[in-house]
Design goal:
heterodimer, A: 243 residues, mainly alpha, B: 222 residues, 86% helix, Cyt_c_biogenesis_CcmC (chain A), cell inner membrane (chain A), transport (chain A), transmembrane (chain A), Heme exporter protein C (chain A)
Chain lengths: 243, 222
Amino acid sequence: MTLIDLANPTRFLALSARVVPWLAAATVILLTIGLYQSATAPDDYQQGATVKIMFIHVPNAWLSMFVWGVMSVASLGTLVWRHPLADVAAKAAAPIGASFTFLALLTGSLWGRPMWGTYWEWDARLTSVLILFLMYLGLMALWRAVEDPSRAARAAAVLTLVGAINLPIIKFSVDWWNTLHQPASVMRMGGSTLDKSFLIPLLVMAVAFTLLFVTLHLAAMRNEILRRRVRSLQMMQASQKAA
Amino acid sequence: MTALAALIRRDIRIALRVGGGALIGVLFFLTVVVLMPFAVGPDLALLSRLGPAILWLGALLASLLTLDRLFMADHEDGSLDLITMSRTPLELACAAKALAHWLAAGLPLIVATPVLGLLLNLDMAATGAVALTLLAGTPALTFTGMIGAALAVTLHRGGLLMAVLVLPLSIPVLIFGVAASQAAITGPLSFGAPFSILCALSLVSLIVGPFAAAASLKHGLD
């Protein structure tokens, strides 16, 4: 690794060090507002208090797909532009995305138990999100299985782009297959069908979770860059000792 | 074109000769199917209900088992480098290799299906439905599995990692393959809809697989 390669990450580290505290503060404020609004939102006439799970479930589900989208863009950066930070971004995003996906599945099944009478149903939306979760885990396994980071980066980039095919399938699964999971109600043609008292807390929570992702992602990228520096320093030290 | 035909002929010949291992897939398929009655009990009614699912799972695992040979042997003896450097586009070469692999390892699985259907107490119509869905669906397994094989050869890692990467991609094929065969045997649902989706999955993977595999070979080999 030459100094030129490190030049860009250094600027990134300096910039992110200034941005991350502000982002973290904004995340905390918005999450507080969102959680307060969610807690004080009226009960649904059919679902009762369980509707409040939606304020956590929906942002998590959105982000589980959004993070894969970010990773796909980063993968294009790795394969097409060979941007030195692109694979750092992709690698740092994978565990965060896997966590969002897991939380979406978990909150969904907790909501499903009283509402649908079952924790799990092999419905198209649920199955495609489960596949997304498995693909996140596979990507993380791929990163861990290969020692050379740049080699692993290119392989993971190809796999991420292939996996991106799953995103439209998840999005439209509720329209294509008429199954248990309810169809889209917020982002649809002809406006949202949600009442304002539910829509506003949901949107606040969605923005808060997105900010949470950006904060965590930048912090994880910083950690990854530092981890790679430590690794190359250790390798330099080892080769000096050997010589 | 002649280069691609030669590549296909060469791959099939290597796969069928001693050490090629294409027919091991069929043997594995047979073994998996024979194992099932030991696991679920020799209840013929139950077996015939589970039959399509068992055959599909066996075919999926068998095609996965032979897939890591797709690029590995060529990488070891250096011919993969020649293929990469040749004037034939790498995407087409990958597609040709996958086609040869499907002819040598995928087609025997479908030929073996009627025999295995007998073991599982499937009647003629059911066996035919499963064989037809396998014929439509196994190209998708081979062509998406090729992505995993290409990644495995560039990473010098095969086996479990490849299975972890490829199996999630093959879930849709499994879903619609089994759904179509069930629909043909028992279901009130129509056979056409899941079967069309299965064909669509195969056609999409015919395009996506070679491009993704070629990209990972181009970027991964040094």
